[in-house]
Amino acid sequence: MGLLIPLFLWVAIPAVLFAPPLPLRSLSSPTESNPVTPTPAPAQEVRESEEEEEIRKPVEEKVVRATLPAAHTPAKHGETDGESWVAQRTMVEDYCGWGWIKKDKESWRQARWVALEGTAGICPLPHTFLPRPEDDKNYQYRFYGTFAPYRAYEPQADVWVDVFILKGFMSLGPAKEEIRRPPPAQASSGVNRFAERGANFR
Hints:
The protein is of the alpha+beta class. It is 16% helix and 25% strand. Strands 2-3-4-6-5 form a five-stranded mixed beta barrel.
């Protein structure tokens, strides 16, 4: 073992000292890959892409229609045969339900506050056609459908409300005036508070 180390040094040191120098690498070496510069597109292709992206100005009449409330609601949708009701969309803060519904000869004092349920594949709710659900506030419709054999629970007021199953509707446009009648009376002591008594199962 003692002889191997001097032997190794005697062979390795001259090999390192007398080795030929490495060639210097030049900056303009042909082996380096030059970055490829993209060639500009022909002028004709640029003009064609600009023509495709041309922005067409909307017709003035369409702009006015789009700003009207409930402009996107179809005038008629679903099954519009059989018994009908007049309905008015009413929004009440912190209160569920869709609005009021009544027969033609009845007054709005006789109307019923309803939760509205669409019929899958036949008729969705009218406000689903709009950007926001409240866009058809105080709009009137002629509804076709039936009252459900069940009721919906309104948690803020702790009451049960009637459910109308919608099968079709016709838009009657904006109502002449807002219905100021409040929905079914609150049993809770205040808005956004749970009722202190149990639910009314009727």
